[in-house]
């Protein structure tokens, strides 16, 4: 199956991503770390980014590896891990739709709604099938999805954010969002600028797209690829049931 080339997560985007702290990262890391520590066997993190989860798990002695479609994300991960270990980071570049290996995993997890980056539902289903096929019998898939209730409001206005680098230069982001309800497609047009001595040294433009699922939509896709034991709850609270307006859902599936 042919896949489109990656048009997001280039150099400046990756650097900004690494400087930006996800508001629920501590909570998310605790959640996924708990599941990883309970797993007796190899773990895989597709779409692993710059290693927000993978690196702490490696440091904890967990048997984990990962891959990502962005060479810039992986470069950032490898550089960070090289400061902590004399071993190479167990990661590689690959699209989830093209994932194939002879290895089987006891746990596969994808945090932070990254699954929505697969905006073509046929490719999303194909990628999900690949993950199912690479789980051992009884293996678990944990995947977090964002729903149509997660659209940030208001759309259609310019926003700006920035971070100061260690050398004192500025990395700035300007972006405007939109949402096509009929396609369930969230879009963010972004412009990244590296500002040194009040001058723009480099810039990068990006169209970020994310498919947002209806509350019960992902359940059907999971069943279609073979999962029969499916549990879902409000991220990251296993005791909180999903409602029609839940913005982010964690699915826990057993093969």
Verbal overview:
Helix content is 24%, strand content 34%. The chain has 255 residues and is α/β, with parallel strands linked by helices. The chain has two domains: 11-148 and 212-254, Vaccinia Virus protein VP39 (Rossmann fold), CATH 3.40.50.150; 150-211. It has a seven-stranded mixed beta sheet with strand order 3-2-1-4-5-11-10, sandwiched between helices. A four-stranded antiparallel beta sheet has the order 6-7-8-9, with helices on one face. Helix 4 (71-82) links the parallel strand 2 (64-68) and strand 3 (91-93). The relative contact order is 0.15. The model has no long low-confidence stretch (mean pLDDT 95).
What is the β-strand count? 11
Largest sheet: 7 strands, mixed
Continuous helix count: 6
How many domains make up the coordinates? 2
What's the CATH C level of the largest domain? Answer: Alpha Beta
Write the CATH fold name of the largest domain: Rossmann fold
Radius of gyration: 18 Å
Beta-strand portion reads 25-35%
List low-confidence stretches.
Answer: none
Q: What is the ordering of alpha helices and beta strands?
A: HHEHEHEEHEEEEEHEE
CATH architecture of the largest domain: 3-Layer(aba) Sandwich
Please sum up the structure shown.
With 255 residues, the protein is α/β, with parallel strands linked by helices. It has six helices and eleven strands.
Q: Which SSEs are present, and which pair or pack?
A:
Layout: H1 11-19, H2 25-37, E1 43-46, H3 54-59, E2 64-68, H4 71-82, E3 91-93, E4 105-110, H5 121-133, E5 135-146, E6 158-164, E7 170-180, E8 185-196, E9 199-211, H6 217-225, E10 229-234, E11 248-254
Parallel strand pairs: 1-2, 1-4, 2-3, 4-5
Antiparallel strand pairs: 5-11, 6-7, 7-8, 8-9, 10-11
């Amino acid at each position: 199956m042919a896949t489109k080339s990656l048009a997001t997560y280039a150099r400046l985007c990756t650097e900004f991503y690494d400087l930006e702290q996800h508001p629920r990262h501590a909570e998310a890391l605790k959640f996924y770390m708990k599941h990883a520590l309970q797993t007796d066997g190899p773990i895989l993190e597709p779409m692993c980014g710059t290693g927000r989860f993978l690196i702490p798990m490696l440091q904890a002695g967990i048997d984990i590896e990962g891959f990502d479609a962005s060479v810039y994300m992986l470069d950032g991960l490898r550089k960070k891990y090289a400061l902590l270990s004399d071993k190479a980071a167990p990661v590689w570049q690959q699209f989830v739709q093209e994932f194939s290996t002879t290895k089987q995993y006891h746990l596969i997890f994808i945090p932070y709604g990254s699954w929505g980056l697969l905006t073509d539902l046929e490719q999303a289903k194909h990628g999900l099938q690949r993950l199912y096929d690479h789980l051992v019998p009884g293996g678990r898939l944990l995947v977090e999805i964002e729903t149509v209730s997660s659209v940030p409001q208001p759309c259609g206005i310019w926003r700006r954010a920035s971070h100061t680098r260690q050398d004192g230069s500025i990395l700035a982001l300007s972006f405007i969002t939109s949402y096509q309800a009929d396609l369930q497609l969230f879009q963010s047009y972004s412009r990244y600028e590296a500002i040194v001595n009040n001058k723009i040294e480099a810039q990068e433009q990006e169209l970020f797209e994310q498919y947002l699922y209806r509350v019960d939509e992902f359940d059907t896709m999971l069943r279609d690829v073979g999962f029969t034991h499916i549990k879902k709850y409000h991220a990251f609270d296993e005791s909180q049931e999903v409602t029609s307006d839940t913005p982010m859902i964690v699915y826990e599936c057993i093969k």
